[in-house]
Amino acid sequence: xxxxxxxxxxxxxxxxxxxxxxxxxxxxxxxxxxxxxxxxxxxxxxxxxxxxxxxxxxxxxxxxxxxxxxxxxxxxxxxxxxxxxxxxxxxxxxxxxxxxxxxxxxxxxxxxxxxxxxxxxxxxxxxxxxxxxxxxxxxxxxxxxxxxxxxxxxxxxxxxxxxxxxxxxxxxxxxxxxxxxxxxxxxxxxxxxxxxxxxxxxxxxxxxxxxxxxxxxxxxxxxxxxxxxxxxxxxxxxxxxxxxx
Length: 245
Prior knowledge:
It is a single chain. The protein has one helix at residues 53-62; strands spanning 14-22, 25-33, 36-40, 44-49, 68-72, 77-81, 92-102, 106-109, 111-114, 119-122, 152-154, 187-189, 205-207, 210-212, 216-217, 220-221, 229-230, 232-233, 236-237, 240-241. By secondary structure, it is mainly beta. The strands form 8 sheets. It has a 5-stranded antiparallel sheet with strand order 3-7-5-6-4, covered by helices on one side. The two termini are 22 Å apart. The relative contact order is 0.21.
């Protein structure tokens, strides 16, 4: 693995839960969104005013053609798209005070054991005056510093300016391994308590002379003193690949 493949930072992911009632059975829909100050251009099929991001998320969830959405914070306008960054990465463009959101929806029971909530409880609670569920997920603290530098370690680092703590979202730099092609190379984050990891996203080093990013990665976890367990899907180790935009 080259040094170019080993620059990584972590992008926050926010999870919304929306409560619906189907045949008297209460369920939740999970819609994830991310990517601030970027929009997916040229694919909006519907544009409507929206007082907040939550309403824009709900509009996309409820429209059968909506695959993603753009929300403009200043003008409070919501665009529903029939494509996503996955299908059309070339159409992602910078737009200040906007946010691009995906519509990855799956049905879950509202009664769920969720470590982010800190207890086993009904995770969906209607907010007054709307059908938006109580938020029970969000960024874990790599961007805002809630997770301290001491909790972030790595197999190696190229120098102080590219140390493991530079892995944070919107860091002026990034983390990079030492000049060695041999692995394994790893980045470890101690969350401080048991957490449910909903999503993982990566951000490369966005400097003109050093455009570097991770091409693929695996995720492992463990409790204190336990053995590492690699994340698997369909009885196979899940190897995630990054999307460039």
